[in-house]
C-alpha cells in the first residue's frame, strides 16, 4: 500500500504572548463554561476581575467547596 505523503511545515510560529492571536477572550469563555460545570458559575466580567492581568484574589470564601476539592478542610 502507498503511504500518505506528509509534508513538514517550513515554519512554525509559537504565539506565546498573544500578539498574533488574541486568545484571551476565547480562554475566558472556556473558563466560564468549565467553572460552571464544576459548580462555580462566574460571568466573564467576574473571571476578568479575579484572574486576568495578574489580579488574583486570595480569598476563596465565595467559592463553593467541591466534594473533589484538593483544598484542606477548615473544620
**Element-by-element helix/strand order:** HH
What's the mean pLDDT score? 77
State the share of residues found in helices, binned by percent.
25-40%
Q: What is the overall silhouette?
A: elongated
What is the straight-line distance between the termini?
Answer: 65 Å
Rg for CA atoms: 20 Å
- Beta strand count: 0
Strand composition percent: under 5%
Count of helical regions: 2
> Structural class from helices and strands?
mainly alpha
Q: Which structural traits does this protein have?
A:
mainly alpha, elongated
Question: Can you tell me about this structure?
Answer:
- The chain has helices at residues 24-37, 44-51.
- The protein has a domain at 24-54.
- Helix content is 29%, strand content 0%.
Tell me the layout of helices and strands.
Elements: H1 24-37, H2 44-51
Summary, kept brief:
This protein has about 80 residues and is mainly α. The chain is built from two helices and no strands.
Amino acid at each position: 500500500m502507498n503511504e500518505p505523503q506528509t509534508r513538514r511545515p517550513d515554519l512554525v510560529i509559537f504565539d506565546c504572548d498573544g500578539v498574533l492571536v488574541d486568545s484571551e477572550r476565547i480562554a475566558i469563555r472556556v473558563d466560564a463554561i468549565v467553572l460552571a460545570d464544576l459548580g462555580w458559575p462566574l460571568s466573564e466580567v467576574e473571571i476578568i476581575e479575579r484572574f486576568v492581568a495578574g489580579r488574583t484574589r486570595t480569598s476563596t470564601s465565595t467559592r463553593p467547596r467541591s466534594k473533589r476539592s484538593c483544598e484542606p478542610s477548615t473544620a
